[in-house]
Amino acid sequence: MTGTTLTDRAILRISGEEARPFLQGLLTRDVLTLAPGAPRWTALLTAQGKALFDMILWADGDDVLIDCEAAQADALAKRLTLYRLRRKVVIARDESLAVHWALEAADRPHDPRLPALGHRWIAAPGDGDAAATFRAHRLALGVFEGAGELGQDQTLWLETNAGELNGVDYDKGCYVGQENTARMHYRAKVNRRLVAVPLRQADEKRQRAALPDMGLSIELRRVETLDPATLPDWLAAAVAAQAAAE
């Protein structure tokens, strides 16, 4: 057994009587309706709509648990603290909990981005490490996450394929970066997409991350240059639908 713990993830607990309204005005998904067992992938953006931190939200009573990249957890907590001002909100790491993953776990929620990613849940830390296995599986499906892959203040949220991966609510009201994100959506103007290509085909000008161990380059490429045959099914369908609507 390799275990189920994703050791490259951390948990931030957002608590206090204003926790949910506080996050509601910052993140791309609706936090007020977040329910137990139904996690949501979301992000904190720049004012221009570029990704800063992506994360998965979990309901824990009135509290919200943020399942985030461990290497960015302190930076995310610091950024949230800047927005808190005088709100009655507590932002803290919860070391008693960890993120778990398994490809098959029928009694656990699916990853909110794509069911094919498998099942994900929050529990006490366990033995073993599933991080490398999940990373390989996730990249094989063309799903990207974290500062190293998405870039920080580099990639517009919809260019990360967030619209197709359930990373945005278009009717939730204002949040940081909402204006540009909504404009791109309603005008169908997602002209670039984050994709994985073989490392031997890398274009350094478009590259967000080089992954030699996987033989991949994650790049931001113009939609018209993409070969649908090389895209994951879910993204090929989205690109085809956009082309048909233009």
From TrEMBL:
Keywords: Transit peptide. The lineage of its organism: Bacteria, Pseudomonadati, Pseudomonadota, Alphaproteobacteria, Sphingomonadales. One of its GO terms (biological process) is iron-sulfur cluster assembly. It comes from Sphingobium terrigena. This is Folate-binding protein. It comes from the Bacteria.
